[in-house]
Amino acid sequence: MARFDRRLAKLVRAIRECAVESLMKPSRLGQRDLGNRNRHRVMKPAKASIVLIALLWAVVGCSAPDSGTALPAGDGRLLVPNRLALNSASGVPVVLVEGGEFPMGSGVDDEGPIHTVTVSSFVIDQFEVRQSELAELQIPDASHFKAADRPVEMIRWSEAALVCNARSLAEGLEPCYDELTFACDFDASGYRLPTEAEWEYAARAGDTGAFPPGRPVPQLSREACYSANANGETMVTGSRSANALGLHDMLGNVAEWCNDVYAEDTYATGGPTNPRGPEAGPYRVLRGGSWKLDAEDLRVTARFRDEPGIDDACFAQDSYGFRMVRRPSDEELEQLSASHSQP
Amino acid sequence: MLCNNRNLGWRIDRFLGLAIGALVVLGMTSANGLAQEPPRRLVYEAYVDDNWELVELDLSSGETTNLTNTPDLHELYPQVSPDGDSICFLCDELRDGQTVRSVEWMKLDGSQRKRLAENVREPAWSPDGSFIVFAKQEFDRFNILDYVSKGLLVYEVATGETRTAGNDAIHHIYNPNVGPDGKWIVTTVHGGMGFRHAIIGIEIDGERVVDLGISGCRPCLSGDGTRITWSSDDHTINVAELSWSEKGPSLSDSRVLHHEDSMHTYHPELSPDGRFVVFSVGPGGRVLENGPGTHTQVAEMIGVRGHWRLLLREVDSDAEPRWLTEGEEQTSKEADWIPGD
Q1: Would you state the torsion angle of the CA atoms of residues A186, A307, A130, A328, taken in this order, to the nearest 10 degrees?
Q2: How far is the C-alpha of B164 from the C-alpha of A186, rounded, in Å?
Q3: Looking at the 3D structure of chain A, how many domains does it have?
Q4: Min CA distance, A242 vs chain B (Å)?
Q5: Contact at 8 Å (CB) between B38 and B75?
Q6: To the nearest whole angstrom, how far is the Cα of A252 from the nearest Cα of chain B?
């Protein structure tokens, strides 16, 4: 049996290396828009390899760690950051995630180069922002798939920023966004959209693999609402299992707006600590894939982009949503520290 | 002074003089270019000194008249009555730190101004002038987004009474137009009534809804309701023909009227006879040298950023379009024709 395991492991390794080689080939992964299928330029060259990996995992994946296993380009360690589940002042479930260091990106196209990034501790919504939250804030909700506990969609970046401000005010916090310029004050105490780095750190949930290809299909189905299981619409938030940080729907359901302006070469030019993306540009970043997309796009490193809707008319996508982050208070950081110093 | 300008301020005096001079020259040349003579007058929103006012423009003389003159109020979205005698419009005022949006009415000379309803938006006249519809604001608190509406109100001009339209499914509509029989509206819907974003016909007091099958927003009907124009995207104005039956409107012969590669185009308005379309042209980029244009200082209003101006095009004609306003010092947009000339 041990001999069979060794041979199987060797086979797995060979296929993974083959897949990595294939994935490293130039593709059209960069410069993708998510919303409109006609505008959506999806990476295709790697599809066969990913399907192969997925099939293999479907066979042998029962022994794989449930938090996602890295491919050989990284060391594949699972180092889940310390975290603390909280409720925000307005009753929204949030998770305080302890900051740390992680390898960001996959190395392919606009996901490269792989580089080490450090993020500070942050508080992040446990779920994608729900439609009920907008109703409580008296904010219009253009979501197509109406239900109080489904995620908000049909929301543009600029509108999402305004919702962040509204929740900040409702909780007595200082809004982050200037509502004229949409500049973000990262020192403010209120809510904002996550940076790409924060988002990927939260989505990885400690997966240090430098090139996570996405979850094995059985695990992806447990964790994500995507084309194979979505039935053509969003799901109630939290319908799928949480990741190792306790965060739901980081992959799938709705693609999530990030604060960062999109640039193809961000990883080559960004700083190593709390990178915040370029100063200006026509697009903002979306992460996580959505109910419309296939497994190949449901990867924690996959980057998407679209116009933020600051200037244009009211066109929106039923697959775009968001979740919020904010700086933790000193008291919350003390709570986190205390919770992990206990035996 | 060239313009009959009651209170637009020194900037209008100084720059509109130059602009109108240019317009007169332009008008002389473009009048030759146009196959037909356009209607003589229209009303538009003008953004001057951080304030929105309604301004009447005489196309033949280039004269402008400020109809509102209210530095503390923003007047927007002019809708002239079918007889050309009066006008209803939006009025934004600051009250207890919040914007309150209302629909108001006055004679076209600015007299007899009165408020018809508060927390409402985007009025539209019935073709016979007997009633005005407007969308009811979805929440008590104001929001600048255009689709924030739930329900439709009907103001009866003869009695001054307002009733709620019978179709209680109306949600997230904006830019309504009343159809020729007074029973339907044609409007944009965004994220409501089962639509993502569409231009639809809605029975005011019934339940029927008709998808016109076109993308875009901000439709406008000709006086008899047989022609429609709308923004098919941020850069393109379309026109099409409409026919009406008991089942509502149906659309045919959709065609592009105007396209701008880089500039944005919005708010197309058909002349009552359907022969001309006037629309707003401006930059899509974020230009912030002007103020926000709202009491609550939120940035979500087309035309506040940069300088927008009005462009006139003849439907089904190769005639060169004609600029009606200049945009160096002020924004002018969201025009409506004054019938009867």
Answers
A1: -10
A2: 46
A3: 1
A4: 29
A5: no
A6: 20
- Which pair of tokens denotes residue B72? 């503390």
Please state the φ and ψ torsions of residue A193, each to the nearest 5 degrees.
-80, 150
Contact (CB<8Å) B297/A138: no
- ipTM field: 0.76
Mean pLDDT of A25-30: 31
Task: State the pLDDT at residue B36.
Answer: 84
Range of the domain at A45: 2-341
- Mutate which of B300, B301, B304, B308 to test chain A, going by most A C-beta atoms within 10 A? B300
**Residue pLDDT, tens place only, A168-225:** 999 999 999 988 788 999 999 999 999 999 999 999 999 877 555 566 777 888 889 9
Q: What six digits make up the tokens of A251?
A: 């992959």
Per-position DSSP letters for B264-287, written without gaps between them = EEEEEEE-TTSSEEEEEEE--S--
Alpha-carbon gap, residue A307 to A286, rounded angstroms: 10
User: Mean pLDDT lowest for which of A51-65, A169-183, B99-113, B302-316?
Assistant: A51-65
Q: Which domains, from first to last, does chain B contain?
A: 10-337 (2.120.10.30)
Give the pLDDT confidence of B155-178 residue by residue, as tens digits: 999 999 999 999 999 999 999 999
CB-count exposure of residue A306 (10 Å: 0-12, 13-18, 19+)? buried
Among B143, B191, B233, select the one facing A154 at the smallest CB separation.
Answer: B191
How many residues appear in chain B? Answer: 341
Left (φ > 0), alpha (ψ -120 to 50) or beta: where does B61 sit? Answer: alpha
Which has more confidence, A36 or B98? B98
